[in-house]
């Protein structure tokens, strides 16, 4: 009997820290199929409240693999352009923005990897450019 698998859409795969981490691992893997599956799942969750603060919690965890943390730094940088402004479709909520802001500068100052620190500095600069002196 042939074997097959069914990939569930984002709505069927609820967002939890564990499922987000598994999707990040897949998206950061070397296997093309896993990259596609993980990337698509992450895209499905982008508009879910709490997604980017969850991603940031993995970025902050220095014990995680470099490739996962690097991917999270890119996701956060892109999120500012797409979802940070109040007028954006599916904008990041005020409470989540506050949490992300609180952790952003400290994580930048404590980041040991230069490439991740570079993406984080761009992420922080974009927030500043959008919010100050307005918010």
TrEMBL record:
Keywords for the protein's UniProt record, in alphabetical order: Nucleus, Transport
Q: Does the keyword Transferase apply?
A: no
InterPro entries for this protein? ARM-like, ARM-type_fold, Importin-beta_N
Q: Which GO terms describe its cellular component?
A: cytosol; nuclear envelope
One Pfam family from the record: IBN_N
Listed GO molecular functions?
Answer: small GTPase binding
Q: Where in the cell is it found?
A: Nucleus
Which residue numbers delimit the Importin N-terminal domain? 38-110
Q: Which GO terms describe its biological process?
A: protein import into nucleus
Output the SUPFAM superfamilies linked to this UniProt entry: ARM repeat (SSF48371)
> Matching PANTHER family, A to Z?
IMPORTIN-11, IMPORTIN-7, 8, 11
Give the protein name, as stated in the record.
Answer: Importin N-terminal domain-containing protein
Organism of derivation: Ramalina farinacea
């Amino acid at each position: 009997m042939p074997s097959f698998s069914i990939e569930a859409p984002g709505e069927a795969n609820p967002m939890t820290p564990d499922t987000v981490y598994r999707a990040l691992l897949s998206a950061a893997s070397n296997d093309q199929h896993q990259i596609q599956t993980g990337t698509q799942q992450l895209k499905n969750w982008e508009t879910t409240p709490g997604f980017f603060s969850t991603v940031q919690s993995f970025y902050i965890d220095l014990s995680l693999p470099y490739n996962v943390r690097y991917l999270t730094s890119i996701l956060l940088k892109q999120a500012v352009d797409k979802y940070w402004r109040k007028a954006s479709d599916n904008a990041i909520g005020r409470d989540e923005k506050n949490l992300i802001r609180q952790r952003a500068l400290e994580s930048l100052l404590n980041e040991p990897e230069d490439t991740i620190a570079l993406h984080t500095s761009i992420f922080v600069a974009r927030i500043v450019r959008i919010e100050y002196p307005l918010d």
